[in-house]
Amino acid sequence: MGIAAGRNVDDALRELGMAVGATNTAARGSGQTASLGDPAGGGVAAPPSTAPPPVAAGGGAGVPAPTSESGVYVYCVIEAKEPQTFGKLGIGGRGDEVYTVHYKDLAAVVSQTALMVYDPTRENALAHNRVNAVIVEEHDITPVPMSFGTLFKTEDDVVEFLRNTYDALHDVLQKMKGKLEYGLKVNWNREEVIAELEREHEEIRRLKSEIVTNQRSSTYFARMQLGRLVEQALTDKSNAFQRDIYEELREVAIASRSSKPIGDKMIMNAAFLVERDKADEFDEKLREIEERYEGRLRFTRTGPWAPYNFVTIRLALERAPVA
Question: Model-level pTM?
Fold first, then answer.
């Protein structure tokens, strides 16, 4: 027995779809607008900025000089006043340094890269996610993640974006500070659950017995009735399992988000927002739940992630012509 945990590669790719920003966009610095959502739900429009003119963009050691064919790829936004570097992890396979570009106490985590539309290939998506993972796990920072493919022409454009969205970004960063996202997928042993339903439901046992004992006469209607009864019972059982799991984890999670299950064995596909200092309590509670459902349910916990499912930002960016 034990919860399967870790940073599943396919989960990493799917999580990128929940990040924020403009996908596959090479953007100019003008015409940027944004709206952000908080853990409670609805979006909050970023008001026009009244901040002073942008300060000079900050870079880190080993940052490659931009060229006429270079762009600035943005992975996420963090709180930081001093320039930081995170290693030669940049997207595009050139080994570009990942560093910060600053406005006030906000910093965009970026790298120089070719000014192009990046296809969401496995390699590119994992390069994007790797940067956020390093920030979350190795630097104990909770970022506001940008979606795959968010690209600006220059660092000044990035600074302008930070300036225009400062209030909204700062608000979300405060709400997400010290919090992590964990994914949870629950698959069931359908055969074992059906056997349990037979033990619990007299009508299911009666119809099954009728079908078995009346082999020489038509059992069409009995089989149809049994099928409908079993499917409804399975739906009710799945809902009961989910209610119980959500209720138990409510004690150790701040918020949760539900996504559509994948495949016919998965009954629950969820994300949970957890205080960083309660991560061990979250895992312990999962182990208790798994022990209770041993043989019937299998739990897979992934993460920690940046809070992809709990922050929503939509950028409207002027698209730049790309050769």
Answer: 0.73
Residue 309 or residue 50, greater confidence: 309
**pLDDT tens by residue, 62-120:** 444 444 588 999 999 999 999 999 999 999 999 999 999 999 999 999 999 999 899 99
Residue 239 makes CB contacts below 8 A (sequence gap 6+) with none
Q: What is the 3-state secondary structure (H, E, C) of the chain?
A: CCCEEECCHHHHHHHHCCCECCCCEEECCCCCEEEEECCCCCEEECCCCCCCCCCCCCCCCCCCCCCCCEEEEEEEEEECCCCCEEECCCCCCCCCCEEEEEECCEEEEEEEEECCCCCCCHHHHHHHHHHHHHHHHHCCCCCEEECCCEEECCHHHHHHHHHHCHHHHHHHHHHHCCEEEEEEEEEECHHHHHHHHHHHCHHHHHHHHHHHHCCCCCCHHHHHHHHHHHHHHHHHHHHHHHHHHHHHHCCCCCEEEEECCCCCCEEEEEEEEEEHHHHHHHHHHHHHHHHHCCCCEEEEEEEEECCHHHCCEEEECCECCCC
pLDDT tens digit sequence for 220-231: 787 888 888 888
Q: 160: exposed, middle or buried (C-beta count within 10 Å: 0-12, 13-18, 19+)?
A: buried
Cα–Cα distances in angstroms (integers) from residue 71 to residues 140, 154, 216, in the given order: 28, 6, 75
Cα–Cα–Cα angle for 106, 308, 74, nearest 5°? 45
